[in-house]
Design goal:
This protein is α/β, with parallel strands linked by helices and about 350 residues long. It has 10 helices and 14 strands. The strands form 3 sheets. A 6-stranded mixed beta sheet has the order 7-11-12-3-13-14, sandwiched between helices. The protein has a 5-stranded antiparallel beta sheet with strand order 2-1-4-5-6. A 3-stranded antiparallel beta sheet has the order 8-9-10, covered by helices on one side. A hairpin with a 2-residue loop joins strand 1 and strand 2.
Length: about 350
């Protein structure tokens, strides 16, 4: 499966949005508040709806976690300057995916500002499930979560704490190996690259419901491990458990967060190798080094696209897409580096 397109109307910060994807690595760039994570959650909810037990509209609510579980809260809120008195208060999410035989399947959810709970009008769900069932997807949030895994899912179910499904799903995926047994040569190579960073391997103790980092005969609680190392350790665990495999989809929000810059090249290389082995990847990043290393280390056959999200006055958020990071006209990361360089030059030129 490859997600090939998303079209939005009146969703969160978006008036309209149409993005097409390469099937490889999609890098989302832009300042805070322009909807990068929102798009990834919308796409992730659609991928999760490939499971017949999962409703697209309910998963949207579970991933965004709006007040009172009302999907109507996702309808775009317009400012006073934007209101004309006849604004359209309906919203549409449309996701297209291409199956292995080249068939396009479309999943659509429509709702409005009066829709109750998650009762959206969903179309295409039966065909989506039939063609895409068994395809795996996972969302890694910006905040590390495995160190808080103890009874978290049960606590959320009892309404004792509040976490959206991206956190709960990744904990479940980290606990259960779906491809036990000897690692393939490709998987072992990928795991070895991450072990260079974490200096160990992850283990899960089902009796304690806790994750640990093993270094030889030493077992360290996750809370005693640096957060950046824990994020890479989670990636190792997902790869080990078979979640990241040919045909699966990985969503990762700000992978650079808390990670030592010296490890960014290894991370970029790992992501490129995942893509070469059939994993579609969506990233949201503010990091120059990660975005640039992906561009520098790509091979001619690698599929990488950069999508810049930017504010455009009353029209809301707009996007620009390029196969090259440095060719984006709207590039907040590059603009910041240019300003820094100019400030350094100006300081050196002062008498």
């Amino acid at each position: 499966m490859a997600v090939t397109k998303v079209s939005l109307k009146n969703i969160t910060v978006f008036d309209t949005l149409d993005l097409s994807f390469s099937g490889g690595i999609e890098v989302f760039l832009g300042v805070n508040g322009v909807g990068k994570t929102h798009v990834m959650k919308l796409l992730y909810s659609a991928c999760q709806a490939a499971d017949p037990k999962t409703s697209f509209s309910h998963k949207l609510v579970r991933c965004f976690w709006p007040d009172d579980h009302r999907i109507a809260r996702l309808v775009r809120k317009r400012s006073a300057k934007e209101r004309t008195g006849g604004e359209d208060l309906s919203a549409v999410v449309r996701v297209t995916a291409r199956t292995g035989d080249g068939t396009n399947k479309v999943l659509t959810a429509s709702f409005h500002d009066k829709t109750q709970r998650w009762n959206a009008d969903v179309t295409g769900e039966d065909g989506w499930e039939k063609q895409l069932d068994g395809r795996r997807s996972i969302f890694i949030p910006a905040k590390e979560i495995l160190s808080h895994s103890y009874n978290l899912n049960a606590a959320v179910a009892m309404n004792n704490v509040s976490f959206d499904d991206t956190y709960l799903d990744v904990i479940d995926a980290a606990k259960i190996a779906i491809s036990p047994g000897r690692d393939s040569a490709v998987k072992k190579q990928l795991l070895d690259r991450l072990e260079m960073i974490v200096d160990g391997k992850v283990s899960f103790d089902p009796k304690r419901d806790e994750f640990y980092l093993r270094k030889g005969n030493t077992r360290l609680e996750f809370n005693l491990v640096a957060e950046g190392v824990r994020k890479i350790a989670l990636l190792w665990q997902l790869a080990k458990n078979g979640v990241l495999m040919d045909g699966s989809v990985l969503f990762w929000d700000e992978p650079e967060s808390n990670i030592d810059p010296v490890n960014i090249p290894v991370l970029a290389d790992f992501l490129l190798e995942l893509q070469r082995n059939g994993v579609q990847i969506f990233l949201s990043t503010h990091d120059y080094f990660l975005a640039k290393y992906l561009e520098l280390e790509r091979k001619p056959e690698d599929k990488i696209q950069y999508h810049s999200f930017y504010l455009d006055g009353p029209g809301g958020v707009r996007t620009e897409t390029s196969r090259a990071f440095t060719l984006l006209e709207h590039n907040s990361i590059m603009e910041t580096f240019v300003r820094l360089y100019e400030a350094e030059v100006d300081k050196e030129m002062r008498p």
